[in-house]
Design a protein that fits this description.
Strand content: 5-15%
Number of strands: 9
Largest sheet: 7 strands, mixed
Number of domains: 3
Helix content: 55-70%
Distance between the termini: 59 Å
Structural class: alpha/beta
Radius of gyration: 35 Å
Number of helices: 30
């Protein structure tokens, strides 16, 4: 029954059930020829020095804290046969295993006890160095008594780059453990490292080509993610907990439990990574829906923020689940959270309300925090009441005061989003939040701000539309400019300025939502051209929000349906009144 996590003592153990090597029926770790040589530095900022300092600092914390365990980065291994003996080929992690072997050999030499790392590393290109100079007490103490120049003068065959780093690492371990601050606590420090310093072992299948895995790992193409580590943790621990709780269980039963959990985990992962699910619930920069689900499930349990880190080797969420210890309960919570989120997704009313809260522009109520709060509710009724109250609060806007000319266009955006998500009389229609986000639907003027942009030349119906928009604000100068067959830029600015000063142009009555692509292609086109774009989009089966469709079909009360080619000042006013009445109803 193979584990996922081993303490340092178990990593090198071939004799007992808890031993990693024992569980794989292996006699040691093989460092293959395709691996680069040992190259961890031992200077002030070298990896050996950092590791030794980290271990010592964690040991000091261990003495005064409840947090005992300290995790080194994982290692990746593959069982192989060499001369009819099984080894674990080290695909990734040889630098850590080598340094630990040196450190344990140093402890054994100083404490005069058995070296648990003895003969556990098999180097394809440096097989004799450890046997001759590291593992045995006398050899090790003799090695660290030399300096490099004297060592290679005595045996020039040692004048190799990797041997130099091995020698320096041995010296550093010896100097560190014999320093005044560590020497008096040597036994306790050693016991701490053996028992509480742990390594995650990632085992790949025998048929996989090791060189390919190594290449991918070292080019960062397939790093072992925190989600994968948590999956391995649950598959390993939950099955064992269930068997233990039942008081009995064969190896076959344990295997079947783990297969069942793994299959269930994969099904949940597929659900969490469904683009529509991810888009609705998981609004951060991560692309891993399962990681987001695990994070939400953890936070819903402890009722506080669990910080997650993007730094390599920092597995805060993994550590949370590991330290929580009741793995069966934790797994049930993950399943329960997934089931709740799934049931909300398929309830149209809740789906639309949650989506509106998720995508309203200001994130006024901190969606992530609210989602955690919703998970604590014991009834659908309470959830709906809270969601409707939040919707009402977001839409508590004086529509007469909002304008595209304002510095903040958030109120405009939220009102128009609500018009599309909650069409009156069509409460059972699901809004397509995925397409809305994916196509980046944004604010657009229905009547253009600059009608003659991008080489457009006004025709007579367009000129009449401008005059109708300006109404009694039109001046003789503007009439003269509009009468010209072609206008230069300064002449265009004369009537542009009047349009921009007119309240209607930037009012909500002249706004709708369009996709960024259509917005760009529409440019400064007039209503009829934009209308054609929208109709073509519908004919292609593309997403068009309900309110946007209604605008370009003039399907709102008192719209000027007798003139479907132009968007008039009357349309702006009637459209604004329609929005006011709808928002008041909502």
């Amino acid at each position: 029954m193979k584990e996922l996590i081993y303490n340092v003592e178990s990593i090198f153990n071939t004799q007992e059930q808890i031993g990693c090597l024992f569980q794989y029926n292996a006699i040691g770790y093989h460092i293959p020829a395709y691996q680069r040589g040992y190259k961890w530095g031992s200077d002030k900022h070298g990896a050996v020095t950092i590791l030794l300092n980290d271990l010592w600092n964690q040991y000091q914390k261990y003495k005064s804290s409840d947090k005992k365990e300290y995790f080194l980065q994982y290692i990746t291994v593959k069982p192989i046969l060499i001369d009819e003996n099984t080894y674990l080929e080290v695909i990734d992690g040889q630098q850590r295993l080598t340094t630990l072997s040196i450190l344990l050999s140093c402890f054994a030499a100083l404490l005069e006890h058995k070296n648990i790392a003895d003969s556990k590393l098999d180097y394809a290109i440096r097989e004799n160095f450890f046997k001759d100079h590291i593992y045995q007490k006398e050899s090790f103490l003799s090695l660290v008594a030399h300096n490099w120049e004297n060592l290679i003068a005595a045996d020039n065959s040692l004048n190799k780059q990797d041997v130099f780093y091995l020698f320096k690492a041995s010296k550093k371990c010896y100097e560190t453990l014999t320093s005044s601050r560590q020497k008096k606590e040597l036994v306790n420090f050693y016991n701490y490292i053996c028992a509480y310093v742990k390594i995650i072992v990632n085992s790949v299948e025998k048929h996989i080509v090791s060189e390919t895995v190594f290449k991918n790992l070292n080019s960062n193409k397939v790093p072992l993610t925190e989600t994968e580590l948590i999956k391995g943790l649950f598959i390993t621990k939950v099955g064992r907990e269930i068997i233990k709780h039942n008081g009995k269980g064969t190896f076959q039963e344990l295997t079947e439990k783990r297969i069942t959990i793994g299959r269930q985990w994969d099904e949940i992962t597929a659900w969490a990574n469904n683009p529509e699910i991810f888009n609705l619930y998981f609004n951060d920069s991560s692309t891993d829906g399962m990681f987001n689900l695990l994070h939400i499930a953890a936070q819903s349990t402890v009722k506080k923020c669990i910080h997650v880190s993007s730094k390599k080797g920092e597995f805060n969420l993994f550590n949370y689940y590991l330290e929580n210890e009741n793995f069966v309960k934790s797994f049930h919570i993950i399943v329960e959270v997934k089931n709740k989120l799934e049931s909300w997704f398929y309830n149209t009313e809740i789906y639309n309300l949650i989506g509106f809260l998720r995508f309203e522009k200001a994130n006024k109520h901190k969606f992530k925090n609210k989602l955690l709060e919703f998970l604590t509710y014991d009834s659908i009724k309470k959830l709906k009441e809270e969601l409707n109250a939040l919707k009402k609060d977001i839409l508590n806007i004086n529509i007469d005061e909002v304008s595209y000319a304002d510095e903040d266009s958030t109120p405009l955006h939220n009102i128009l989003l609500a018009m599309n998500v909650f069409p009156i009389g069509q409460e059972n229609v699901r809004f397509d939040f995925y397409s809305y986000k994916d196509e980046n639907w944004t604010l657009e003027h229905i009547f253009p701000q600059t009608p003659e942009g991008k080489n457009v030349v006004l025709d007579n119906p367009q000129k009449e539309a401008i005059k109708q928009i300006l109404g009694d604000k039109i001046t003789d100068e503007i009439k003269t400019v509009l009468a010209l067959e072609v206008r230069e830029e300064p002449e265009k600015e004369i009537y542009y300025k009047a349009l921009k000063e007119d309240r209607g142009l930037n009012s909500i009555g002249n706004m709708c939502l369009l996709s960024l692509k259509d917005n760009s292609s529409n440019g400064n086109k007039f209503f009829n051209d934009k209308r054609k774009n929208i109709l073509e989009r519908i004919q292609r089966g593309s997403f068009v929000p309900k309110h946007t469709f209604d605008v370009f079909s003039k399907m709102f009360p008192e719209a000027d349906t007798g003139n479907m080619k132009a968007w008039t000042g009357t349309d702006i006013l009637k459209h604004e009144n329609h929005i006011k009445q709808t928002i008041n109803t909502l």
